[in-house]
Specification:
It is found in: Membrane. By secondary structure, the protein is mainly alpha-helical. The protein has 13 helices and 4 strands.
């Protein structure tokens, strides 16, 4: 298997949206870097970074935003340097895997996209409301997946506040304390040189918090998105015997049963599932992985 086949398998065939988003971000970062190197070596009169910033980064100046209306979406897949993308992708991997495991891939996708959009909107609003940014808003732009990643981090900590992870040099830490520390640092740094970046983090975090709160109260904001991309079930009659048990082997349920369990998670959380319901989800996931191999 070639390297491109392996990358395709990781991004598209693994079933993980976390790996898909990491792949998209890394590919765009590498492509931008390669094009920049190419123009440098051949002394071409093209500034790739300027083009990317002008047409894909989200601006706060409203007249510019009006004719670059796509930028609140595109900015969340761009990065300004190696360490910028490195830390964003690491946190996306760590937190995204947890959220994807306890909810599902579609909700993870919704939180990433909607959280990034919320971060962009919050950033634009703050720069156009507060006098401190009156001069900076004309030329201010933002790039990065940070708002999307923060939305996922806060959503995960809100859903599983006592979930514990191990940190180097610190030891086991509960998610609620870890994410709270990140949010406090973002608040403090709003007064620093990268105000827009930290403001977008806060916008994404606010969305992640209220999304899970709404989910826990039975209001699933991602439902319209999931319904649009929900595949139709293909039914096949295998027997006319009314007494045949149609449940697949290894207790693997049909899609309707899985949807019912996911709806229960949306209403009351994963921890309120019965052991049998958790086993059903586990077997369904295992069966999906076997089919992908």
């Amino acid at each position: 298997m070639g390297i491109f086949d392996e990358i395709k398998m990781k991004m598209l065939n693994s079933g993980s949206r976390v790996m898909l988003f990491i792949g998209i971000n890394v590919i765009i970062f590498l492509l931008t870097g390669i094009l920049t190197l190419f123009t440098f070596l051949f002394k071409l009169p093209i500034d790739i970074n300027a083009l990317v910033t002008n047409y894909l980064a989200v601006p706060t100046y409203l007249p510019t935003l009006l004719y670059r209306f796509w930028t609140p979406f595109t900015y969340m897949f761009l990065h300004a340097g190696f360490f910028h993308i490195l830390f964003n992708m690491l946190w996306l991997f760590w937190m995204g895997k947890i959220l994807e495991e306890f909810l599902n891939a579609k909700k993870l996708t919704f939180v990433y996209i909607a959280g990034g959009l919320a971060g962009a909107v919050f950033y634009i609003l703050c720069y156009n409301i507060f006098p401190a940014f009156a001069e900076a808003k004309i030329g201010s732009v933002a790039v990065g997946a940070s708002a999307s990643v923060t939305a996922i981090m806060v959503a995960t900590a809100t859903l599983l506040p006592n979930y514990t992870i191990g940190l180097m040099f610190i030891g086991p830490v509960k998610l609620k304390w870890l994410v709270l520390a990140f949010i406090l640092l973002d608040l403090i740094n709003v007064a620093g040189p990268n105000s827009g970046g930290y403001i977008s983090h806060l916008g994404g975090g606010i969305f992640g918090f209220f999304f899970i709160r709404a989910l826990q109260s039975g209001n699933d904001w991602s439902k319209p998105y999931e319904n649009v991309f929900k595949p139709k079930l293909k039914l096949k009659v295998v027997s006319k015997n009314d007494h045949v048990n149609f449940r697949p082997k290894n207790d693997i349920p049909n899609q309707e049963m899985i949807d019912q369990i996911l709806d229960k998670i949306s209403q009351s959380g994963y921890n309120n599932l019965t052991k049998r319901e958790k086993d059903i989800l586990f077997n369904a996931s295992k069966n999906h992985e076997e089919k992908e191999k």
